[in-house]
Amino acid sequence: MAVPGLEHQNGTASGSKGQPASDEVDGRGRRKPRVLLMGPRSAGKSSIRKVVFEGMAPSDTLFIERTNKSSLDDINSFLSMRMFDLPGGQLDPEQLNLSFEDTDAVIFVLDAQSTLHDMIRKLSVTMHKAYTANPGIQFEIFLHKVDGMSEDYRLDTLQNLRDRLTEELFDMSPQLESNMNVFYHLTSVFDTSIYEALSKVIQKLVPEQASLERLLDLLCSQCSIDKAFLFETSSKIYIATDSAPLDNQTYVICADYLDLVGDLTQLYECVDPLSLRDSRASSTRARH
At the top level of CATH, which class does the domain 11-203 belong to? Predict the structure, then answer.
């Protein structure tokens, strides 16, 4: 069965042949970037969505049910985009029935604490199919759930994944791996690594990225600022940053400030006078 919303666009869906549907374009009439979130069952795809885009506490992700059907998040902020969370079975080449032509990026979420041997083979087949349909597609591989692992073990696991996937792709075609846009990230929902990884993914989808970087460089030079970020405040994803080297600790400090500002904003939100009056009246009656 094809995943709803991921079939190749046609005249029926768009209202006129060759034109995207109205919910697939942003306020400026441009097609929204489309991102697929894929991976085996229990890899952590839904946890990432819940923590980053819905504000769920990481500790609560232990109770999330498995994804049994595809779901769509329409993200409308500085960058409007569509993110599809696909069930784990969709990574199985035997069940794969997707159209990658209009997909801008595929995020593969892999559990760093599981056995990756069989999964690497399935991953390479999926990547080959996607690249054949769309050579410009980005592949973002999240080696997830690395919290609790030592730094050396994380890097060894990542290097092993990179080497074996490169071999699989090379066996399919010697030129395949070198021509693909493949990026690797170590991630966890229990620290800021997942926010930083998603930030880097989304930055590649922003057409104005180069202009934003130049503007932030100008801001830093004119105002003597060490580092500047352009944040999407609700998710703590940064859409752009200046060209100075990124220090992880600087991002952590900025993310903590965003949490503080969010908490203070809730304290000082405007209250409807009528609601406040009704609340006071109810409180008065309760005392009597």
Answer: alpha beta
